[in-house]
Specification:
Elements (H helix, E strand, L loop, with lengths): L12 H14 L1 H5 L12 H16 L6 H13 L17 H16 L10 H11 L7 H7 L6 H5 L3 H20 L17 H7 L8 H9 L1 H7 L1 H11 L7 H14 L4 H6 L1 H12 L10 H14 L11 H8 L2 H14 L10 H19 L6 H8 L2 H7 L4 H15 L6 H8 L7 H14 L3 H20 L3 H16 L6 H7 L1
Helix pairs in contact: 1-3, 3-5, 4-6, 5-6, 5-9, 6-9, 9-11, 11-14, 12-13, 14-17, 16-17, 17-19, 19-21, 19-22, 20-23, 21-23, 22-23, 22-24, 23-25, 24-26, 25-26, 25-27
Length: 507
């Protein structure tokens, strides 16, 4: 009943709603037990929005929720055909019924993803809430045109629109039902399937005539692993519908790939059983030079392929090997990311864990193969440099054979003309390799210094260079030290005369 003052910057219903949300979150059990007594005709929707939002936060906090009244209120709102129009009280934005419907979907999505939070005897009521929300008018194609594109990706729009959020909740519902159906059964006695009531909704979501938005399509592909788990044969049969190849549906296909590769971890079971998904995704990933946005799905696609390779399920000697295809046919962005991502992964790929030695050996084979092919690939020098300079990550992190690492570092530096990423870390670790091969260590230092003698780099590397020069000098390896003398003289010519102290100490 509170009325806001009619003045600028005054308290507003939206502001009051935020206080409601905080109180509901703190006392979620008490609020949830009485929400079905609310008269939706006499309360502003903004307060209902923050009521459901507060309950969602309460779920995240692990608070007890009385779900029967909550679902009853949600059903009353969703199924109402005559929700009251609200009088505008202030000039500021105020959440309306669309926001309430979206938050109902968000609350159910959050609750259903958590085992045994919502009682199973509410299955029918929960579906009566979700099914109409999956037919909500938001987003429309006009809505996507206005707010999507470069403003918001399909996957991000999905959690900011009613039908998008409801589709998320729908997939959580599928797994929620399955978990209850198989509760307490041994794995060999479990049966998995897509609930019958959900099949018409899935059919509608996959029909471009009924569901033309990229927003919802991205959500469907997001949950491919759910579908494959519940019904692999059905999922196989629907693969071309989920990722359509027709030119007129290319935007839907692209949104589906973005949805899948933005949020799913590499899954060997899915790769083995739905390999066409990953094969068809190559043209999508390779179509654009950039992979803008926070989720970087095209880079994630390459990461999936790398995992399948080093797991041994997509061997390099196969003509259909997809990571091989990335290097042979992929654009520069994909190739650069493949080398960098593999190098970064070596920080956690260890020889002491099961499968670790085999994975490391496969990555060595991959780099040997790539270096052997790159010279004859006819690539511009700039692309060779951009791709192979990422080997700096490998040398920094890899727990591989030191002789191999050092020789590959030298090979790479010769191809990149001394350019390397993560160079200061490479120089830091190189001091451990001086005893492995003193001559090659000296050659590495010389190539790096001559390749990028920028003032800020030399100053940044000075401590590491001093240590390396001293270590090489102390080995009394004449040829290696003569290379270092030439490197130090080159640095002096560039104005970095402090390294001459090492020569003075030698004489």
């Amino acid at each position: 009943s509170w009325q806001p003052p009619k003045e600028h910057y005054a308290p507003s219903p939206e502001g009051l709603g935020r206080f409601v949300k905080d109180d509901v979150r703190a006392r979620a059990s008490k609020y949830s037990s009485i929400v079905d007594t609310i008269d939706i005709d006499s309360i502003r929707p903004v307060y209902l929005y923050y009521l459901f939002s507060g309950l969602e936060d309460g779920v995240k906090d692990g608070n007890t929720i009385e779900w029967t009244p909550v679902v009853s209120l949600a059903k009353k709102i969703v199924l109402s055909s005559n929700l009251p129009k609200q009088e505008k009280l202030v000039d500021d934005f105020e959440t309306g019924w669309g926001g309430v419907r979206k938050e109902i979907a968000s609350l159910l999505s959050e609750a259903l993803r958590r085992p045994k939070i919502v009682p199973y005897d509410l299955r029918e009521s929960v579906w009566k809430v979700l099914e109409p929300l999956c037919r909500d008018s938001e987003p429309s194609l006009d809505y996507e045109a206005q707010y999507g594109g470069s403003n918001m990706s399909p996957v991000d729009m999905s959690i900011n629109t009613v039908r998008g959020e409801a589709t998320h909740a729908c997939f959580q519902y599928l797994l929620w039902v399955d978990q209850y159906v198989n509760d307490g059964k041994e794995s060999e006695n479990q049966t998995h399937s897509i609930p019958e009531e959900a099949m018409p909704v899935l059919a509608r979501l996959l029909d471009p005539a009924q569901e033309p938005t990229v927003t919802v399509r991205s959500v469907v592909a997001w949950y491919m692993q759910y579908l494959a788990f519940l019904d692999l044969n059905w999922t196989k049969a629907q693969l071309n519908s989920i990722f359509p190849e027709k030119v007129e549906h290319r935007a839907l296909r692209d949104a589906a790939f973005e949805g899948y590769f933005s949020f799913n971890q590499p899954n060997g079971y899915l790769f083995k059983n739905l390999r066409p998904l990953f094969e068809h995704a190559f043209s999508w990933a390779n179509a654009e030079e950039s992979d803008g946005g926070f989720h970087r799905p095209r880079q994630n696609y390459v990461d999936h392929l790398l995992n399948f390779y080093w797991w041994g399920i997509d061997p390099l000697d196969s003509e259909n090997c997809l990571i091989r295809k990335v290097f042979e046919s992929g654009n520069e962005k994909l190739r650069v990311h493949a080398i960098e991502s593999a190098g970064r992964s070596l920080e956690r790929l260890l020889p002491i864990v099961p499968g670790g030695p085999e994975a490391l050996n496969r990555l060595q084979q991959l780099l040997d193969w790539r270096i052997g092919r790159i010279s004859s690939a006819g690539l511009p020098d700039s692309e060779v440099v951009d791709e192979l300079k990422e080997f700096g990550w490998w040398f920094t992190y890899a727990q591989m054979d030191q002789v191999w690492l050092l020789s590959k570092l030298l090979d790479v530096l010769r191809l990149t003309k001394g350019r390397l990423e993560w160079t200061h870390k490479v120089l830091e670790r190189l001091s451990q390799f001086v005893e492995v091969d003193t001559l090659q260590s000296a050659q590495v230092v010389d190539l790096i210094v001559r390749g990028d003698p920028a003032a800020w780099n030399i100053e940044y590397w000075k401590e590491h260079l001093d240590r390396l020069f001293d270590a090489i000098k102390n080995t009394q390896h004449h040829e290696a030290w003569q290379i270092c003398v030439g490197t130090i003289q080159f640095l002096g010519e560039q104005g970095y005369r402090s390294f001459g102290d090492i020569l003075d100490r030698t004489s």
